[in-house]
């Protein structure tokens, strides 16, 4: 190798090494990236039937490799495609929630309140739950870059009343937010998460005795409720080297009268039928609908699949989620809700389409207006 080429090679290698060291140092020093499972938690993970060859696996074979052509297409579409419809031209309003009123009310009915994206307040049997409470401004580890929220929050973290339990589906940034967890720690009785996710929470100051980690098909009881972690078809990871190192899950919430299903993130698979056979029928299903693309069809559902999964679960009322807050894919922001409502109406599937912050009172009040057209 000639001397100039050799020098360039060594210089390039040194730059790669420095970038790698800097990246690892950043992740180690920055708490928002979470923590690696160690000790007894690591042993529990390794004993899971869903963990082998050093990582968690989906219940069915799931190819997530875009390949060279797919990667180029994704990048060029983001950089050069028409992106004016990915987000609304104004901040989406939300119906503001009264913290004092929420705290004082223990409704006998099951009440579902959408906080945007996949975040919910679920009031059931007098208990107040939070699902995937990502209430930050960006779905990113950084405050200055990454997908930015384009919907108002119906309630701030500071105003949030006491929460009996928080349920988290997986550790992606649009579902598990460092700042939100830090704010919620003192006002939450208990956290229920998938295997491995507890390590992130402990690093962020949540006491170990307030965390329960579940594998698929495991159940936990909480003040008269039953929570079941059920399979999903997705993946996990918050950094460069932790992909598939924590589990991802959907959640079944069983009350004395009502049953709620929360999909988290998932591609379509036959597991929805199995969940429906074991735990259904469900009074309401909160089903992922949004952030899809033909380049990653295995990890997010297309709108027609959302309706099919709801039917597989033996759901009575469908509520589409995972849209209307962040632009994480390349479709227009209204595309998910337009397509899923059209499919549901064609098949005669009851569907709820509340505004952000609007209460859905099961068996009593189900909002169905097309507010996104306004």
TrEMBL record:
Ranges where the Metallo-beta-lactamase domain occurs: 128-323
Record's keyword annotation contains Amino-acid biosynthesis: no
Entries under SUPFAM superfamilies matching the protein: Metallo-hydrolase/oxidoreductase (SSF56281)
Keywords, comma-separated and alphabetical: Signal
The keyword Nucleus belongs to this UniProt entry's keyword annotation: no
Domain of life: Bacteria
Annotated PANTHER family: N-ACYL-PHOSPHATIDYLETHANOLAMINE-HYDROLYZING PHOSPHOLIPASE D (PTHR15032:SF4)
Protein's UniProt name: MBL fold metallo-hydrolase
Organism: Pontibacter aydingkolensis
């Amino acid at each position: 190798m000639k001397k100039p080429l050799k020098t360039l090679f060594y210089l390039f290698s040194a730059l790669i090494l420095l970038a790698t060291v800097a990246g690892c140092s950043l992740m180690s020093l920055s708490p928002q990236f979470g923590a690696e499972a160690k000790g007894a938690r690591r042993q529990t993970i390794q004993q899971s039937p869903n963990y082998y060859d050093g990582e968690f696996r989906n219940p069915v074979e799931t190819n997530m490799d875009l390949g060279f052509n797919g990667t180029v297409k994704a990048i060029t579409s983001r950089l050069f495609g028409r992106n004016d419809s990915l987000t609304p031209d104004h901040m989406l309003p939300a119906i503001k929630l009264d913290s004092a009123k929420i705290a004082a009310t223990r409704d006998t009915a099951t009440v579902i309140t959408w906080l945007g994206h996949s975040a919910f307040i679920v009031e059931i049997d007098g208990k107040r739950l939070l699902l995937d409470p990502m209430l930050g401004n960006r779905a990113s580890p950084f405050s200055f870059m990454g997908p930015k929220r384009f919907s108002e929050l119906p309630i701030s973290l500071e105003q949030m009343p006491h929460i009996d339990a928080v349920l988290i589906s997986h550790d992606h940034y649009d579902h598990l937010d460092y700042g939100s967890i830090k704010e919620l720690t003192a006002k939450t009785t208990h956290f229920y998460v998938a295997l491995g996710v507890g390590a992130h929470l402990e690093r962020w100051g949540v006491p170990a005795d307030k965390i329960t980690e579940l594998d698929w098909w495991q159940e936990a009881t909480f003040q008269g409720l039953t929570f079941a972690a059920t399979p999903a078809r997705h993946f996990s990871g918050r950094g460069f080297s932790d992909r598939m190192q924590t589990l991802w899950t959907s959640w079944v919430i069983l009350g004395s009268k009502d049953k709620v299903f929360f999909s988290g993130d998932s591609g379509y698979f036959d597991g929805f039928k199995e969940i429906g056979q074991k735990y259904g029928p469900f009074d309401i299903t909160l089903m992922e609908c949004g952030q899809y693309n033909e380049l990653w069809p295995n990890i997010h559902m297309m709108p027609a699949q959302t309706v099919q999964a709801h039917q597989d679960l033996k759901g009575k009322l469908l509520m589409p989620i995972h849209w209307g807050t962040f632009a994480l894919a390349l479709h227009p922001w209204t595309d998910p809700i337009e397509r899923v409502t059209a499919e549901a109406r064609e098949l005669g599937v009851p569907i709820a389409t509340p505004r952000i912050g609007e209460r859905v009172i099961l068996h009593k009040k189900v909002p169905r207006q097309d507010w996104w057209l306004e």
